[in-house]
Amino acid sequence: MKRISLEVNGQELSVSCRDEDRLLDLLREELGLTGTKEGCSVGECGACTVILNGDAVCACLVLAVQCDGARIQTIEGVCGSEKGKALQQAFVEKGGVQCGFCTPGS
């Protein structure tokens, strides 16, 4: 186990992870942030997309140990923000279907 420090949705955290743990696993299993979904596990569907240091990445393709010192934002960190509200409104206006797997859910 390795200890890493990272910021998730504005909160500074220190967590333990194994070398083989993916960021997706850390978010869902250790931190309980289940808005990040596992779809294809190969970076094709986008269901596990998070913002890592300002860039959109597939959390299924990033090892947790690579995130030491990183800033991560998940859908839970967007929900209450103005951007999150605008995104939700756009889905309503355009009839976007949101099951939570093909399109990361809020």
Can you walk through the features of this model?
This protein is an alpha+beta fold and 106 residues long. The protein has three helices and five strands, in the order ββαβββαα. A hairpin with a 2-residue loop joins strand 1 and strand 2 (11-17). The chain is globular and about 45 Å long. The mean pLDDT is 89.
Number of helices: 3
What is the strand arrangement across the widest sheet? 2-1-5-3-4
Low-confidence regions: none
How many beta-strand segments? 5
Write the layout of secondary structure elements.
Layout: E1 2-8, E2 11-17, H1 23-30, E3 49-52, E4 55-58, E5 71-73, H2 75-78, H3 82-94
Parallel strand pairs: 1-5
Antiparallel strand pairs: 1-2, 3-4, 3-5
Summarize the structure.
By secondary structure, this protein is an alpha+beta fold. The chain has helices at residues 23-30, 75-78, 82-94, and strands spanning 2-8, 11-17, 49-52, 55-58, 71-73. The chain has three helices and five strands.
List descriptors:
3 helices; 106 residues; alpha+beta; five-stranded mixed sheet; 24% helix
